[in-house]
Amino acid sequence: MPELPEVENVKRSLEQVGVVGRRFVGVELHAKTLRTPLKKKMNQDLKGQQIVGLKRRAKFIIFETDDFILLNHLGMTGSWRVRDSEQPKLKHDHVILNFDAGFELVYNDPRRFGLLELMPKAKMPTHPWLKSLGLEPFDDNFTGEFLFQISRGIKAPIKNFIMDQRRLVGVGNIYASEALFRSQIRPSRAAGKVKKEEAHRLADSIRRILQQAIDSGGSTIRDYRNTHGETGGFQNLFQVYDRKDKPCFVCHDSIRAKFLAGRNTYWCHKCQR
DNA sequence: CGAACCTCCTGCGGGC
DNA sequence: TGCCCGCAGGAGGTTC
Asked: What pTM was estimated for this model as a whole?
């Protein structure tokens, strides 16, 4: 479900509800596995640990405690919410983090594509889930020049290329289509055929669109909610995503759709070359 | 190595 | 109205 803007908003809303500074009383596991098995040891390890920081890396949320990193990915349908003790447990409430003063954080995830793994702090840099991640789009080193250089000789479609988390992180299926529309590049074009000037436009579009989406609270197609239960607003600003056969807002030609990287991809054939 | 599929899982909207 | 099919914000694994 969530791409960088949604994950960033979840992370910020977790900060707002006051997660940082809380001390773990325990962890309740109500499922055997998410994307990977939920380890029972998590409960013992986290007991007494204080959350000292909250970070986002790519589409991961990182809970930092005194001694551990609790790594979380929301997959397609993962969400966090604060539960008051009166509230009954809901379907797909797989993990409950119990903190001091009765504060409870619930991880809900119908499809269980999400991830929750605990590791010692020192293991983080070499952890399989994190070690191969590419540049953050808001890193100063992420430039059109960078995008141009790393895409030379790549035959895969540019859309697949910008979604590949090993090069650039944070862009998923929605923002790939949207960023390519705004940079006037067809999603199916071979990455290696993207010109230097276009690479600059694309890098700028990616950064701008992700920032706009963050500012709008992310995009809610169906499931996405932040920790307060609020939906995003960026879905109202889609130019092409999920607009097959609808008129392009710029030239009024019909928006086209086809599968790339196994996912539906949207573009305007006139505006994008 | 890269690229095209497959896979995990549940829910829901559209079509018949 | 109800059932069935296909598709959904991800991404690692498999195969060629």
From this structure: 0.97
